[in-house]
Amino acid sequence: MVKIFVHPLNEYDVLVTTPGPASQHTVRRHNCALVLDAVAATPGVSRAGVAARTGLTKATVSTLVDRLVTASLVREEGRQHRSGPGRRGTSLSLSPDGPCGLGVEIGVDYLATCLMGLTGEVRDEHVRRIDNRDTPASRVLSRVAAELRGALQRAEREGLTVGGVGVAVPGLVEAPSGRVLVAPNLGWENIDLAAGLRTGVLDLPGELVVGNEANLAAVAELDAMRRGEETAPASFVHVSGEIGIGAGIVLDGALFDGANGFGGELGHFPVRPRGPRCSCGAVGCLERLAGQDAILSSAGADDVDDLVSRLDAGERTAVAAVRSAGRLLGSALSAVVNLLDIPAIVLGGTYARLYPWLADPLSAELSCRVMGSRWRPVEVRRSALGADAAVRGAAASALRAVLTDPDTYIASRTARSGSGIGATSG
């Protein structure tokens, strides 16, 4: 038996879990994933190019490409340009008419959904402002289920196919089971989120992937950087600044989330030993002193819009509140940089909006605390996705399940629609 292991950054490994010969279906499943990965990695590649990249025969590649085209995962785009002799191949790329990933983010004070296509385009986004604190988990999951049903209805009206669902949660997630072990700012412990949502949305399409919101935001940010910048840093810390503070750590183009997937809890770094008690049970945690609520309280602002208006007007109390948060954030991040030698910090969420006032005090703190800053200053940049990073990362996580195992998606789609997409050999 061969198991496809879905890596957070669009990579996969084929793990042999039991000895013995592979079945024809298992071989086709593996080869189908190889072919789709080759097309995704090199848009415009021909069938011959796919065969060269994968080591598969041209006949097998042609059969599998036809299967992927029929399932709207791959699109043929006309003949390639050739300057020399020889037959021109047909260009292949991911289909913009293929399945969408449906992402949902469970924020402390909002719920967000996003429909994203295979080629990265956002087809629908929706944010509902609602306070999920001090609310039973079952009630919050009912709200999430309602948002999912609404997004699925909008997708149906637009003629979009949903290939899977990804959920971003501000807490420690046991990814294989979809269980949230703890989400302090929501007051959750040991919540079987996957089971709860499948009960609330009876016909949930495709796979359901649950992940930490900061990690998913970091992966989305990395994808955005790769599409938009040739010189984007391969290693960085993406800081999701909301009511809680999370960090997604990317090292050499891969997400680093620790041995158990629990890494990146920057908000619970102790920055003031005698500080206020945190929802996690400790005292003096960063998010209680530099999170969104702490900044608003110190600035005397009603919400982030009000805060930005005060900052634009140069109001001293607001500026002082943000600068204080920047220094505390810099102090915590300097420990991360000193430990891991990371060259860049990306400010996301609310911090992306506060970047013009936050960046200087944060950078100053890094300069005086990071040992190597004299020779390699740490870059502080604003997120390209801002508050949308986590929900887009959740949508992308659902699509990765399709991209790394397209044969299972095709079989599921066939069973659901009775469309008769054939089980060809390969």
From TrEMBL:
InterPro entries: ATPase_NBD, HTH_MarR-typ, ROK, WH-like_DNA-bd_sf, WH_DNA-bd_sf
Domain of life, per lineage: Bacteria
GO molecular function, one term: kinase activity
Chain ranges of the HTH marR-type domain: 32-82
Pfam families named in the record: MarR_2, ROK
Keywords: Kinase, Transferase
Family, as annotated: Belongs to the ROK (NagC/XylR) family.
Name the UniProt record assigns to this protein: Transcriptional regulator/sugar kinase
Originating organism: Saccharomonospora xinjiangensis XJ-54
